[in-house]
Amino acid sequence: MFPEYRDLITKLKTTDHHFTRLFDKHNELDQQIKNMEDHVTPGTPEEIENLKKEKLHLKDQLYTILKKASA
Question: Out of 35, 46, 53, 69, which could bridge 41 as a Cys pair, Cβ 3.0 to 4.6 Å?
Fold first, then answer.
């Protein structure tokens, strides 16, 4: 996610607790979605869709933080 901001992400993960929390939650949702899609854990298509929307919302927030921090 955001390879052009790799160094900045590393920096923010050590200095910005809000960013770290959002980043970790995004990764948790990503894993949860993969597990549901691979039938490792149960999940309806609606649940998966809702998790994907939540993940996208987090990604938007992370991108906003990254753009602001890089300016």
Answer: 35
